Amino acid sequence: MKPQIEIYDTTLRDGSQGEGVNFSVADKLRIAERLDAFGVQYIEGGWPGSNPKDLEFFKQAARRKWKHAKIAAFSMTRRKGVAVETDELMRQILEADTPVVTIVGKTWLLHVTEVLRAKPDENLAMIGDTIRFLKDHGKTVIYDAEHSFDGCKDEPDYALATWQAAEKAGADCVVLCDTNGGCLPGEVARITAVAKGKLTCPIGIHTHDDCGVGVANAVAAVDAGATQVQGTINGYGERTGNCNLISIIPLLHFKMNRSAVPAQSLPKLKELSEFVDEIANMRHNPRQPWVGATAFAHKGGMHVHAIDRVARSYEHIQPEAVGNSRRVLISDMSGRTNILMKSAELGFKLTPDTPELKAITARVKELENEGYEYEAAEGSLALLISKTLKHRDLPFRVDAYHVSMRRNGAENICEATVKVIVGGQTAHTVAEGDGPVNALDGALRLALVKFFPQLQNVTLTDYKVRILDSATGTAAKTRVLIQSSDGKREWGTVGVDENIIEASLQALVDSMEFALLKK
Q1: pLDDT value at position 319?
Q2: pTM for the whole thing?
């Protein structure tokens, strides 16, 4: 049986302190419910003394039944010179009505004397008094020892005294915090081992990512004996963020032979990561380990050739184990295996003996050299393959177009006309738009839906422009990437030209053609 590691999620408090992250009460409840379903052991809901929103969260959380997780409220030790029984902070933490309370206290003597302006013995009393008071009220108490590693490096005897004061008062877990995020894994491992040798209660780890080793430091602490890991989903948090639970959870399971969450939850890891990003209105990081869109994306021809034969030759786990999937990218670095595997994804039945395979590979490399990019333009790639294989005739042809812009008072009016030929028939349409591309899209769609009603469902969902050779100034070649959807699937298309309107039209035409393409 795998050793159990407790996961303590602090996305709703520490994570919300990250720049650009802000949760409503409804947001916090939705995230908490998803974390509970995923199987984390603790969910820290906030600091009930800091704002009305956290108070409301705890009120609503107390009315709900939680399947796996225990809700924790966060606060600090009693204040200097205030009896614990009369401290307003203690009243607030008890009113949160949570089974677990997490208390932060000072470990670093520098903070005790220069920030708190307290005597060392008084700080120890503040720690002990607070934990005993909360234990007497039936709470599970987790003690977060702030600046544990800096404190231990500076004054090891005093740091140890603070941890022992917490344990003696009845703390259920003493969590060592790398609050500044400035320690390295070797330091974390050494100091965690010291704490493990001196304390009998469970030890936890809380790391920040200021040096880019937040997850590595948590791994080092677990190796040294820590049994609780605190962190946030997607690494949200102060400054550069906290230990990323989306990374540490699969590390514990797949690489360290520890049990952290139910095994059946791991295939939902990517879904959890994307869900929290969506609630936070943050763009999902495509390069995030384990769950990012590029985590199992292969581009180099040698790599793709290898994974086609033995997937684990270039993949450390099966992507599906964390809810991700393998992607084969097409570029000027692609070999024939890239084309074969990507063609299979797109529904084409190519083999190494397909005569057109060499021509398709060469054409992709040629177009990539001209500025085309097919990594995010699978629709255009499918059309290129289809045309090379001569599977079909073009469904339509743009015979002519015109785009103009005029100012009417304070208003700019963009107008586009498009003439398309379908079979032996012609459609000539005009449309206005918010800009030239929007007008062109409207005119093209208006012309084509007369012949292909299904295109009415196709919408443009994203539009990106990149200047490829800026040294040539306004004559620079432009690449346009368009993302489209018909409500059931999404696809990307690409266009390249010195004229941004022409490049946009290429991508728009490919989008409509792909929508009509049958596998």
Answers
A1: 86
A2: 0.73
